[in-house]
Amino acid sequence: xxxxxxxxxxxxxxxxxxxxxxxxxxxxxxxxxxxxxxxxxxxxxxxxxxxxxxxxxxxxxxxxxxxxxxxxxxxxxxxxxxxxxxxxxxxxxxxxxxxxxxxxxxxxxxxxxxxxxxxxxxxxxxxxxxxxxxxxxxxxxxxxxxxxxxxxxxxxxxxxxxxxxxxxxxxxxxxxxxxxxxxxxxxxxxxxxxxxxxxxxxxxxxxxxxxxxxxxxxxxxxxxxxxxxxxxxxxxxxxxxxxxxxxxxxxxxxxxxxxxxxxxxxxxxxxxxxxxxxxxxxxxxxxxxxxxxxxxxxxxxxxxxxxxxxxxxxxxxxxxxxxxxxxxxxxxxxxxxxxxxxxxxxx
Length: 347
Fold this sequence. Notes:
CATH topology: Glycosyltransferase
Helix content: 55-70%
Low-confidence stretches: none
Strand order of the largest sheet: 3-2-12-11-10
Strand content: 5-15%
Mean pLDDT: 94
CATH architecture: Alpha/alpha barrel
Distance between the termini: 22 Å
């Protein structure tokens, strides 16, 4: 692995860069060319809560736990709409996303597992139940709704506004909440989402003709692999996992000279390790992905979003950084034969 990567610097970026505001909210990303943060995002704050909980688990540094708690309490105290039982896209937004809601629930549960704060669990479970109530429709679910009426927003052919297999990652919120509460209805909703997603997963790629758009869909296709992680003992899930992972690998290498996202490298590397018990890890490919991912780390520890025609895209992304920390951490443990000290599900 490249010596460029430093897990310590990556972790400190979350604490020292200003990407997390004093309120606890985390900006969508940092614009390096203008030296400004984008607005705080509830989804990204949920991702950050999970990442900071992971960093605390790995290091036992109380600074990470403090930052994780601030992120969680921003979500519960400022973002959570208790009257509507929903998390908005951003503060003051009249939209709510199924995908974002699942990421937020999982972030709250990641912090709850450490602190056991009852409020975090109660709101996470209420939000998971709200996802089932407000987004679910028969065997389908609405990607976006408008509040307060909770009216479904028209879908488009863009992956983030459709109900394809990538949405299954957020259904992990139902699985994780059910593991804690024993609520069959939530567990069954996750399993139902997986069944629907298995039907659409083989047709998800390429989904576009232009290389950059296909690269964006590789990011989404990796979400589907993450969604399958609890079900890898199932033969149909292993077969789908292998097929989609191979497709991502092929397209990533073909498109990378034109446009590549660091998070796709991180997600794919992580996917290989998580499936190691069912699908033998191609160590040469994994080493190549780890080295390519490490090259995106900045001196301050954050990870660049990507590279276009050989030039860095000047965004520093909290989610890319979180994925990279986890991916390189689990890969280092796997490569050395050491047990993973923090066997978190995918952030």
